[in-house]
Amino acid sequence: MEELDKDCLFCKIITGEANSYTVFENDDVKAFLDLSQVNPGHTLMVPKKHITNFFDYTPEDAQRYLQYIPTIANAIKKFDPRITGMNISSNNGASASQVVMHSHIHFIPRFEGDGLKIATRNNAEKYTEEDYQKVAAAIRAEF
Fold first, then answer.
1. DSSP labels for 64-128?
2. Core-most of 19, 25, 26, 99, by most CB within 10 Å?
């Protein structure tokens, strides 16, 4: 098994030291129900290697672990015909509300009228053409 962190909850789930409700598992990833169950079927997918978050992924890590996103999303969607959408997200870093510091992806099934609100904000009125150009150029310079 790849390098794991003995103090990490998700590493303990991978090794079986901590209980989980597994829905999919292979040599690369494990997917299991999130105990919060924001909506029925809310699932987490974790790589079977301790990676803190996407900032620490190599291109090879991304290719190896993220290829399972469509497979897991489609299985969750098929389990309940009432599912009409899905939020697929990852919180990266404490300031982005990452609680367990092991990379994981949330699959949150969505139902018409489920009342769940994902908080965002629109700051478009605060940006000029020059502001957009400046931010885009600064990001481009980092590639």
1. HHHTTHHHHHHHHHHH-TTEEEEEEE---SGGGT--SSS--EEEEEEETT----------GGG--
2. 25
| Contact (Cβ atoms closer than 8 angstroms) between residue 94 and residue 53 | no
Global pTM value = 0.93
pLDDT at 119: 86
Domains in the chain with CATH codes = 9-114 (3.30.428.10)
Q: Can 104 be counted among the known catalytic residues?
A: yes
Give CA–CA dist 60/54, Å, rounded.
12
The DSSP symbol for 95 reads: G
- Residue range 85-94, pLDDT digits in tens: 999 999 999 9
End-to-end CA distance of the chain: 33
